[in-house]
């Protein structure tokens, strides 16, 4: 399982300056690395890659491959090397025909350089692809209303987890509104329990709070504007209100006093939560597998989950989701065999592919997945996630994945300054408005 794999992209891509216009524009006319007969597909080479290996083998032996006159050669790239190797390859005559990515900011430079095949018309006209995936996931990976990717791994929505035993002991129920959440906070603090675990040392767990609050206050259109390159979106009143709400939580002790020295990646924040020192934890869906691995009794007996609450007077729907919709396959605009590439993408919509994802502990983003989830490690949690995403009017890609890679790091720095009290909400807004 790729519990933390979403995080590696940020640092590595920033370090290699993914959006370098010189390298990408220079290769705008280069074709894919394969001839029309063999197409190369780059994939992130973690434990989950076995699902893609089976998909390639299945496609290469299929009638569809024969009809399209092409086969796929899968190149597994170690995770830490992936962004740099992809960028280098895309700037050379050996560019892959198909490649794994996160959508949003991770592909914007390639889109701007004319290197991506626009899949919008294909996704609306090809029956296997059109009906194969949850609409919110398809749109979440796009840019400016166009689609450049086909979902190919599991979903990772951000979920509000809570300790069922602590909630029962203090006669609390999962909040559906912000006022209810604040009331729960007050009761927990009175009982000497920190309301929320937070791995502030890693910074990215702090981001989740601003993502959901901005959505609940202003709706998904606020960040859509920012994602598509309009930095004036940072000046939307919803962003300031979200930052002010975060400051109120911090000042009120909702995260305790030492959250900035607690990490998620070393197990610190999950331990605070599992040991009952904090009653809730806003985290990606991988929190379940993390707890199952580190504190199995807690995961099986005490772990509860719910949607992030609404904010009174806000424009955002409680069904809206933030997080990592999935990973995507994108196609090089200059591939030598577009028909074979599209034929291969169809396998990701198949029941067989979805079943293999479920067997690997993932929740597929295919429209046929719900019937398969009884075979997942925790069917109840799997179905909650699936229905959450299935019913979502909007699924906002994690901000640090959605914006340009060279903006991600300074954005996270400004978020951390807000959380540790080094800037005011107004200073935070002013700083992020200046990011280019």
From TrEMBL:
Domain of life, source organism: Bacteria
Any matching Pfam family: SBP_bac_1
Signal peptide annotation: 1-21
Keywords attached to this entry: Signal
Gene3D superfamilies: Periplasmic binding protein-like II
Protein name: Sugar-binding protein
Species for this entry: Streptomyces mangrovisoli
